[in-house]
Design brief:
Rossmann fold, six-stranded antiparallel beta sheet, alpha+beta, globular, binds iron/sulfur cluster, 25 strands, Glutamine Phosphoribosylpyrophosphate, subunit 1, domain 1, seven-stranded antiparallel beta sheet
Length: 470
């Protein structure tokens, strides 16, 4: 994934840029970067945030950097921001993008004798490709429109020019952008979480494909929002920060509604009799609270997360180490486990390996029963539109592995397993058995969509039903 923040102000805004960008740290683990503009020109810094947090990496820079306009990024993929000197002027650029047709775009560029100077993972830096596409336009506005229309996948952009910040939201609105305001300053962010403690109020959510220019004098719309939207439903379910709002819908309340919907369905089916409810920390917490309130069962924490020495950004490549670290972070509280019937809410079940270990440890600590309620339907397809790092291969998904076990092949059509009353129950039972859960009941798609509160046609639900398009 990744997240972006920008600010224009009548005063120096380096500190707001620093804190605003830092509030996007949950969206990426590879690079952080900021670029500021002042009377002398542009000033840029990029650091790896793999083994250190954004704040520590930039604390020296931010004491010497100054400017009244700036943009920043947390990136899960390429080093950013890039600084470009082009016929359209000098600018800094950050993106949240996944460019599925990058090879074709680069080939086409080479055919026109273009060159790219920034590398990323042995290839062309994707933000450099976005910049190349922008430079094809006669104006920055036209170039931005050309860029977001040419890219398959997704692409939102902030561009710090000599005439303010240009912001373009992905043409299908898969990733969000929202403008905040306070006296003398405007900000633009992926996450509204960046606003309250920097004193900004959200004033406008950009629509899909909308392009604006932000200056000290206000917001100028350059391209209106488009009618079709496919905003990522997983923002609310899993990776958005609980204090954020997208399309003016709060993440935490959606998670509470998801948990409540799971509880209501359990009540309809006559399920009851657990001693406590918990969310698998941290992304299951909001769902768990919603379940506990609806079911009138105490919310307790049989596990707590030890965050003091495990920086969130410490994410080694190997899955084994990731699982080990995830396990080391969770510390069980035996008093709340021994002899008890526990129900957990989780945002989703991805591979299930980590969850398998967690359940095992609960039984080892004396749990009598362990019930699981994921807040979304079974994941059947990997994300094709965002650099979403949870899994990139379909067959690593717990539900797909269960289908392989049932069918004896990787070629089985997962759509046969989407509807209840078909093969769905058999697949769920396989997952339950592998995880050694007492019961497993996934959220229904209609309940998840109702909890978010947008029309189904406005949401990307591809992870569950392969329904979205490029
Ligand atoms: S495929 Fe899944 S993670 Fe990707 S944009 Fe769609 S809902 Fe979000």
């Amino acid at each position: 994934m990744g997240g972006m923040f920008g600010v224009v102000s009548r005063q120096d805004c380096a500190s707001e840029l620093f804190f605003g960008t830092d509030y996007h740290s949950h969206l990426g683990t590879e690079y952080g970067g900021i670029i500021l503009r002042n009377e002398q020109g542009f000033d840029r810094e990029i650091h790896s945030i793999r083994n250190t947090q954004f704040r520590s990496a930039f604390e020296d820079d931010i004491t010497r950097m100054h400017g009244t306009q700036g943009i920043g990024v947390i990136s899960d993929y390429e080093p950013q921001p890039l600084f470009q000197q082009t016929p359209l002027g000098r600018y800094g650029i950050v993106t949240v993008a996944r460019i599925n047709n990058i090879d074709q775009l680069v080939e086409r560029a080479f055919a026109h004798k273009a060159h790219f100077s920034s590398m990323s993972r042995g290839g062309v830096n994707p933000t450099d490709v976005v910049s190349y596409l922008i430079n094809q336009g006669d104006t920055l506005e036209e170039g931005l429109r050309h860029a977001i229309d040419s890219i398959k996948g997704s692409c939102s952009v902030l561009l710090l020019s000599e005439h303010g910040i240009y912001a373009a939201r992905d043409r299908l609105g898969r990733t969000p952008l929202v403008i905040g305001q306070k006296d003398g300053s405007l900000a633009i962010a992926s996450e509204t979480t960046a606003f309250p403690n920097t004193d900004f109020e959200p004033v406008r959510y950009l629509g899909p494909g909308e392009i604006v220019r932000i200056t000290e004098d206000g917001i100028e719309q350059l391209s209106p929002p488009r009618s079709e939207m496919q905003v990522c439903a997983f923002l609310w379910i899993y990776y958005g920060f609980p204090a954020s709002r997208y399309e003016d819908i709060g993440v935490e309340v959606v998670r509470n509604r998801c948990g409540a919907a799971c509880a209501r369905r359990d009540q309809e089916l006559g399920f009851g009799g657990v001693d406590s409810v918990a969310g698998v920390p941290d992304s299951g917490t909001g769902h768990g609270i919603g379940y506990a309130v609806q079911a009138r069962v105490p919310y307790q924490r049989p596990f707590v997360k030890y965050n003091a020495t495990w920086a969130r950004s410490f994410m080694p490549e190997e899955q084994l180490s990731r699982d080990l670290i995830a396990e080391m972070k969770l510390v069980p509280i035996k008093d709340l486990i021994q002899g008890r019937r526990l129900l957990f809410c989780e945002d989703s079940i991805v591979r299930g390996t980590q969850l398998q270990d967690t359940v095992q440890r609960l039984y080892a600590s004396g749990a009598r029963e362990v019930h699981m309620r994921p807040a979304c339907p079974p994941l059947l397809y990997p994300c094709e539109f965002l650099n979403f790092s949870r899994t990139r291969t379909a067959m690593a998904l717990a539900a797909r592995r269960a289908i392989r076990e049932i069918e004896g092949t990787d070629e089985a059509d997962p759509s046969d397993y989407r509807q209840q009353g078909t093969k769905y129950e058999e697949m769920v039972e396989r997952v339950r058995g592998r995880l050694r859960l007492t019961s497993l009941r996934y959220q229904m798609m209609d309940d998840m969509i109702a909890a978010i509160g947008l029309p189904r046609t406005s949401l990307c639900t591809h992870c569950w039903d392969a329904s979205s398009h490029d």
